[in-house]
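Help needed: design a sequence for this.
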């Protein structure tokens, strides 16, 4: 299956997110993380992601006579190439954005449903701002953002670290009408 098709589905995106950061999780753990998704759907999507080269079985163990598999993201997994992204239609971009937003909403709801959720103490933010940027300023901002985030994205889990989900969204807004 084409990486674009694999990734433009909310349940598959949630599974990929749940396995990010080098996490190894069993199908049961993934089902527990996504109680709103039928177990059969989680298993079906795990199969598709494994067949598509996104996931690999990282561990197998016997549990009550059955084999329980734990999955992880493959380091050499396919990605949506810049060429594939530029070849996407407007409707495919709409689908991708809707899938990403569905994942974001599901993850935020899961956070809020935790007994220890504290949006203020956890520095939760969901603001929107309009920036007026030239092409050069946009490029400088994106480069600076990548320079800050890339080293942090390589962090491994640790006793002093908590996972934070960051979802930057950037697109041009509508320009105001020209003064007549």
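Sure. Designed sequence:
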């Amino acid at each position: 299956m084409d990486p674009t098709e694999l990734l433009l589905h909310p349940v598959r995106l949630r599974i990929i997110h749940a396995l990010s950061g080098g996490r190894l999780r069993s199908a049961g753990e993934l089902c527990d993380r996504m109680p709103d998704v039928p177990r059969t759907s989680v298993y079906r999507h795990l199969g598709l992601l494994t067949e598509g080269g996104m996931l690999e079985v990282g561990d197998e163990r016997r549990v009550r006579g059955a084999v329980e598999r734990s999955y992880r993201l493959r380091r050499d997994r396919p990605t949506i190439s810049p060429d594939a992204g530029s070849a996407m239609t407007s409707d495919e971009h709409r689908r991708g954005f809707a899938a990403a937003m569905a994942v974001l909403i599901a993850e935020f709801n899961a956070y809020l449903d935790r007994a220890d959720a504290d949006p203020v103490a956890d520095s939760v933010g969901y603001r929107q701002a309009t920036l007026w940027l030239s092409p050069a300023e946009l490029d400088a901002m994106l480069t600076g953002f990548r320079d800050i985030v890339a080293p942090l994205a390589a962090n491994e889990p640790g006793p002093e670290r908590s996972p934070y989900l960051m979802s930057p969204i950037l697109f041009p807004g509508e320009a105001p009408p020209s003064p007549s």
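The mean pLDDT is 87.
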